């Protein structure tokens, strides 16, 4: 079983749901468990996926996922960031991405790279 963390900023949540729908069979076939920041997780659940929901990003959800990465509990991160919006919790976002690099965890920040990573996963 592998764990994939999914996170999407508000302007990218629809793309995340679309991405998951497009990969529904692969997620099942590869026995992937999903964890997510709060609102991303709620949207994911509404689309019919099982997902562990952590706190909403601005309330510490990114930091919780960063902590799971540091503990070696995450195998891949899909984080659809919105580069055209401001985020009050930017330090948490950088921490999450930094810890992916520290621990050599694959990180996709847009659908094109996420598609490639999922193929290889
Ligand atoms: O803010 C986020 C990522 O930085 C996402 O958080 P939500 O999924 O709770 O909207």
Automatic annotation (TrEMBL):
| GO MF term list | methylglyoxal synthase activity
Per UniProt, which keywords does this protein have? Lyase
- Residues recorded as binding substrate, renumbered to this chain, are 9, 13, 37-40, 56-57, 89
Q: Which EC main class describes this enzyme?
A: lyase
Judging by the UniProt lineage, the source's domain of life is Bacteria
Q: Which InterPro entries match?
A: Methylgl_synth, Methylglyoxal_synth_AS, MGS-like_dom, MGS-like_dom_sf
Tell me the Gene Ontology biological-process terms attached to this UniProt entry. methylglyoxal biosynthetic process
User: Which reaction equations make up its catalytic activity?
Assistant: dihydroxyacetone phosphate = methylglyoxal + phosphate
Stretches assigned to the MGS-like domain: 1-121
Q: Where is the active site?
A: 62 (proton donor/acceptor)
A cellular component term from Gene Ontology for this protein is: cytosol
SUPFAM superfamilies, from UniProt? Methylglyoxal synthase-like
User: Per the UniProt record, which EC number(s) apply here?
Assistant: 4.2.3.3
Q: Which protein family is named in the record?
A: Belongs to the methylglyoxal synthase family.
Q: What does this protein do?
A: Catalyzes the formation of methylglyoxal from dihydroxyacetone phosphate.
Name by which UniProt lists this protein: Methylglyoxal synthase
Per the UniProt record, the source organism is: Salegentibacter agarivorans
Gene name of the encoded protein: mgsA
């Amino acid at each position: 079983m592998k764990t994939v963390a999914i996170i999407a900023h508000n302007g990218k949540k629809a793309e995340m749901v679309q991405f998951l729908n497009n990969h529904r069979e692969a997620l099942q076939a590869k026995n992937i468990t999903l964890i997510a920041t709060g609102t991303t997780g709620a949207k994911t659940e509404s689309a019919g996926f099982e997902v562990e929901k952590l706190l909403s990003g601005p309330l510490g959800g990114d930091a919780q996922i960063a902590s799971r990465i540091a503990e070696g509990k995450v195998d891949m991160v899909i984080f659809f960031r919105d580069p055209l919006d401001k985020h009050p919790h930017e330090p948490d976002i950088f921490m999450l991405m930094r810890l992916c690099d520290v621990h050599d965890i694959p990180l996709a920040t847009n659908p094109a790279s996420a598609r490639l990573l999922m193929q290889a996963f």
